[in-house]
Specification:
This protein is mainly α. Helix content is 83%, strand content 0%. It has one domain. The two termini are 22 Å apart.
Length: 144
């Protein structure tokens, strides 16, 4: 498909890796933040870490994932009759919804109004694993 296609794919993979790193790390920060005392130095440090991770890494990486992914699909002609790709898109949409839910929880911590436990965030940290596994199975095996 050419060198340009390969570079777009590199951009997509780089963005996916950065986005998924943040999607796995942010809820882990929430686990520890939920146990920190409101107003403590530790809690304030978590707020800075969470904001920088979300705004500086996760948000741009999500935009890159979608942008490069759509560009790949258009350039490669993947959108015509490839059923697995549509299901992959639905799973990526699920990750995007999860991404924005993480931001809502981040804002609750920022405003000192979080009401969720560290156990809750431990459980929520597993959801993107299931979505990612589904995406990888579809991309690698292309089952239909």
């Amino acid at each position: 498909m050419g060198l340009a296609y390969d570079w777009i794919k590199i951009g997509h993979l780089f963005s996916v890796i950065a986005w998924m790193a943040g999607i796995f790390y942010l809820p882990r920060l929430f686990v520890y933040h939920a146990d920190a005392l409101t107003g403590s130095v530790q809690s304030e440090t978590f707020k800075v870490m969470e904001r920088r991770l979300f705004k500086g890494i996760m948000r741009p990486a999500m935009y890159g994932t979608w942008g490069f992914g759509l560009w790949l699909g258009l350039k490669g002609g993947w959108f015509s009759g490839v059923s697995w790709l549509w299901l992959k898109g639905l799973l990526v949409l699920g990750l995007t919804v999860y991404h924005y839910q993480l931001d809502a929880w981040r804002k609750a911590f920022e405003l000192d109004v979080n009401s969720r436990s560290s156990r809750f965030f431990r459980m929520m940290n597993e959801l993107p694993t299931v979505l990612l596994l589904g995406i990888l199975v579809l991309v690698v095996l292309k089952p239909f």
